[in-house]
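Backbone description:
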Amino acid sequence: MTKDNLIHARTCVYNVNYHFVWSVKYQHKLLNKRIEKRLKEICSEIAEDKEFIIRGFEVGEQDHVHVFVSAHPKIAPSYIVKMLKGITARKLFIEFPELKRKCCKGHLWNSSFYVETIGSISEEVIRQYIQKQQKGG
C-alpha cells in the first residue's frame, strides 16, 4: 500500500475504492458527447456534496457508465450509486427533455448496477501478511 492512496479522516486512515458500472435502461445509446459532459459535471457536484471522490469516470458506447470512487468507510457503496444514478437522472431529464421522451417509462438508468472493491494490494498479499502475524513475524 502506498502512502499516496491514503486518506486521513478524523477517526481513521483509509483507502476504500469502488468501481461502479451501470447502464442506460434497455441499453439505449443515449449518452452523446453533450450529455456525457453534463453527466460528468453533475457527478462531480454530487461527489463534492456527498463527500466522496471520483477518481475516474467514463461513458462506454453511449449506453453505460464506469465510475472509480474513493469514499470514507462510513459511506455505503449502495448509497453512492443511489445518489449518482438518482440525482443524475433527475437533472438530465430536466436539462435534456428529449431524454425522457426516448426512455421507456421515464427511467434513464437500469435498476441494477455492478460494484467491485479496488485495493492497492492483492488478496493473496493480505492473506500472507495475516498468516505471518499468527507465526510471530
The first strand starts at residue 7 and ends at 8. The first helix runs from residue 33 to 50.
